[in-house]
Task: inverse folding
């Protein structure tokens, strides 16, 4: 089904269930990122960042904006929290959306690209329509 992919847990799960996968999608600058829904723990809006959840104690921040542009977001509007070996939080300035992407539109990024590029944080790439234009989404694993 995949032209140039390798197996991993979230694509295997999606393949057993259906022909598409749901992603939480958000932008950092002009770059679109997606995280498979099965990995999402929660999305916390700005009003709850400091009061309702113990964000600092339980969750490791991963500042994509700083990694790409050299500066952090001063006042993020939300934080996307997802599960890896631990909980990871990504501060964002856009409202994330949920989209479904057909599995045949997803490709794995070559290991060389991941090693030599600031976007090496992504494991896969998807091409899809967002709004009126074709967009690239870098999928975090």
Result:
């Amino acid at each position: 089904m995949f032209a140039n992919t390798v197996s991993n847990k979230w694509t295997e799960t999606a393949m057993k269930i259906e022909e598409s996968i749901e992603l939480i999608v958000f932008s950092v600058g002009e770059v679109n990122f997606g995280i498979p829904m099965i990995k999402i723990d929660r999305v916390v809006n700005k009003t709850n960042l400091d009061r309702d959840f113990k964000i600092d104690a339980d969750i490791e921040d991963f500042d994509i904006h700083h990694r790409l542009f050299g500066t952090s977001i001063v006042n993020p509007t939300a934080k996307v929290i997802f599960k890896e070996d631990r909980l990871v939080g990504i501060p964002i300035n856009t409202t994330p959306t949920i989209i479904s992407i057909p599995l045949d539109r997803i490709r794995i990024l070559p290991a060389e690209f991941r090693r030599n590029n600031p976007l090496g944080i992504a494991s896969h790439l998807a091409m899809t329509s967002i709004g009126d234009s074709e967009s690239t989404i870098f999928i975090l694993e």
